[in-house]
Specification:
This protein has 18 helices and 16 strands. The protein is an alpha/beta fold. Strands 3-4-2-1-7-15-8-13-16-14 form a ten-stranded mixed beta sheet, with helices on both faces. Strands 5-6 form a two-stranded antiparallel sheet. It has a two-stranded antiparallel sheet with strand order 9-12. Helix 5 runs parallel beside helix 14 and helix 11 runs antiparallel to helix 12. The two termini are about 25 Å apart.
Length: about 500
């Protein structure tokens, strides 16, 4: 068994004892094939507040779980729970660089220093320390590729104070000194810097900049895009039954597919291999707003990016192949509790009225139950070298299911690189994406439930598909308190207090 991080036997024993002690544990029933819980049971489990909050992870803790294999507190960026001094947790990116000499990349459609990309390349007790996180990414971790939002935004360009409260804008021009140094060429790093240019195609700007970067010369790429809100431009998605129409609203930002193409072209130059995390963050932001149309655009953007990665591997770009490359598509958490009540066809959108976070859907085709995160399972799909490892982990913590824990992603990626020849690890995260969002986008694009790029990987001989639980320590402690069980301890916890298949289901 490999269900626990350290002191495995002790924790397995504690888990067994807890399973006997608490009716919350679904182990026996799941193994006996108990039916899925009713919709009313799921609704209650996922939407009932405990101590004033619906239990669900935030992106910082979820990103940390994937990046380090450790559960932590909400808000922590690859830092131990409880915020101890010297609490840094080594990330999968850092380990693979140290052990294998891998090149590193992070790319996101939201600020590059936002919680998810930060969790792979920075360490902090609070995701809100935007300047410190961005500074660490660019000047300490220094991945070979950094692409994301943050242009003219508080997460980078206008982050004017560090976490001690000191000014980072000594010339008082409204932009911090790090941003200024990249714009005026005084940053003293190996980065080739390119930024959003008014009236110019962002994809072309990015690809042209990437063409001048040679990793064997020590070159790196830092590309900064995004609207003033911080994210790349949303897609304009039209209600055109039978003929879907989508187009990015502003040309100055690249698509995630263009980001993927440029990034893989660069990172594959490294003969030792690479690790890269691509985040489609607009999905989460759209879901917080209960904005169905923008959500469809975000999932489409991710779909196109995965197709781009598959094309790069199929073409054997710089030696990439399915024998030496592992691609994973997942989400860090669910968001919004979308439910579809009508099967909409290709190009068809529900009637949508109102403003962000107050949208209504008067025809009743779809409903949202929250503007926040939920503790629902998320999908996981994998293809390539080491994908068989997922089957070994499935059901370990959640018996009778095809679910892994999000911390298992770290173990699988590391094992794939160390033992299964995965010299290229490509991780896609559709932030805030749940199966309902995937199906909604697939129906709009193709008139089918499961036509997105990754949805068929489980049927391939070199692929796998299943689900992941995403809870963090805060979520665990809320559920534990509700049933009178001890709070989370790193070496003694019951995973089914964090996610209970008996209440939430074995499938999303």
């Amino acid at each position: 068994m490999k269900p626990y991080h350290a002191r495995a036997f002790q924790r397995a024993l504690v888990f067994a004892l807890l399973a006997l002690q608490t009716s919350c544990s679904p182990v026996k029933e799941s193994l006996q094939g108990q039916a899925e819980p009713s919709q009313a049971t799921k609704d209650s489990y996922f939407l009932t507040e405990i101590d004033g909050k619906v239990p669900a992870t935030d992106s910082a803790a979820a990103g940390t779980a994937i990046a380090t294999g450790r559960k932590t507190d909400a808000g922590n960026i690859s830092w131990k729970a409880g915020d101890p001094d010297n609490g840094k947790l080594e990330t999968i990116a850092e380990t693979l660089r140290r052990e294998q000499g891998f090149a590193l990349g992070i790319a996101s459609t939201v600020p590059f220093s936002h919680a998810t990309p930060a969790a792979f390349t920075a360490h902090n007790t609070s995701r809100n320390n935007a300047w410190d996180i961005a500074h660490e990414i660019l000047f300490t971790t220094a991945p070979e590729v950094v692409i994301g939002g943050g242009y003219a935004n508080k997460y980078f360009a206008t982050a004017l104070h560090d976490q001690q409260g000191s000014s980072t804008d000594r010339d008082q021009n409204g932009f911090n000194d790090d941003f200024d140094s990249f714009r005026n060429g005084t940053h003293a790093t190996n980065y080739h810097y390119v930024e959003r240019r008014k009236g110019q195609d962002g994809g072309k700007v990015l690809l042209e900049a990437a063409a001048g970067v040679q990793l064997d010369n020590g070159d790196k790429l830092f590309a900064l895009f995004g609207t003033p809100a911080g994210n790349f431009s949303y897609y304009d998605v039209q209600d055109t039954p039978g003929a879907p129409q989508l187009k990015q609203k502003e040309m100055e930002d690249p698509t995630l597919a263009e980001v993927t193409t440029a990034t893989l072209k660069l990172l594959s130059q490294d003969p030792d291999g690479f690790f890269v995390m691509f985040e489609q963050g607009d999905i989460d932001w759209s879901n917080h707003a209960n904005d169905y149309q923008k959500m469809i655009g975000g999932v489409y953007d991710l779909h196109q990016a995965v197709l781009s990665a598959e094309a790069s591997i199929d073409s054997n770009r710089n030696g990439m192949s399915w024998q030496n490359t592992l691609v994973i598509v997942t989400s860090d958490h669910a968001n919004s509790y979308l439910q579809s009540h009508t099967v909409l066809g290709k190009g068809d959108l529900p009637l949508q009225q109102g403003e962000p976070k107050q949208f209504t859907y008067p025809d009743g085709d779809i409903t949202y139950a929250t503007t926040g995160h939920t503790n629902q399972l998320v999908t996981v799909a994998a293809r390539g070298a080491g994908s068989g490892l997922f089957e070994e982990y499935a059901g370990q913590w959640y018996p009778g299911t095809r679910s892994i824990d999000n911390t298992h992603l770290h173990a699988i990626m590391l094992q794939a690189a160390r033992e299964h020849g995965a010299r290229h690890i490509i991780l896609f995260i559709g932030d805030g994406m749940h199966l309902e969002h995937e199906r909604a986008a697939s129906r709009y694009l193709y008139g089918k439930d499961d036509a997105l790029a990754w949805r068929g990987w489980g049927d391939r001989s070199n692929g796998w598909s299943g689900y992941a639980a995403t809870w963090d320590i805060d979520t665990y402690n809320r559920y534990a308190a509700q049933v009178g069980q001890p709070g989370f301890e790193q070496d003694a916890f019951n995973p089914t207090l964090g996610y209970n298949p008996q209440s939430g289901g074995a499938v999303p």
